[in-house]
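Entry type: protein chain
Record version: 2
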Amino acid sequence: MRRRILNTALVLASTFGLSLVSANAAQAGPNGTCALGEVCLYYNSAENGLNAYFPQTFNIPSYKPYAFVQSEHGGTGANQSVYNNAAYVYNRSNGNFGVFYNSSYSCAVACQEIISGQHIDLNSTMKNNNASGGGGGF
C-alpha cells in the first residue's frame, strides 16, 4: 500500500513538478471563500457565477465521496458530487495543481495544470470531467 501511494506521488511530481507534503483535512474558508493554501473547485464557470465550491487542501485520488458546499458566490450545486461536476478552479496554494479526467491522477485521457495563484475555467475537455486532483504544495 505504501509503495502504491509513493508511486502515485512520484507520478504527480514528475507530471506537474509538484512538491507533495502530508495532507490535512479540507476546511472551508471564512464565509464560504477560498482561503490561502487551498485549491477550490467551483460548480459553475466564471461566466455562470461560480456558485458552490469545494475547498481542497490535500491530494484526492477520487472525488466521488466529496460534495460542493455553498460559497460566497451562492449555493447552486451545493451537495452535488465534486466528481465530474467542476467547471472552475482557483489555486490559492503554493504549488501547481493538477485536475485529472481519470481517478488516481491519471493523465491517460486528459488532465489540466492550474498554476499557483491562477483562477480559471476548466478547458472544454476537463469541464465536468474531473475525477481526481492533486499537487498544490499541500
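Comment: The chain has one helix and seven strands.
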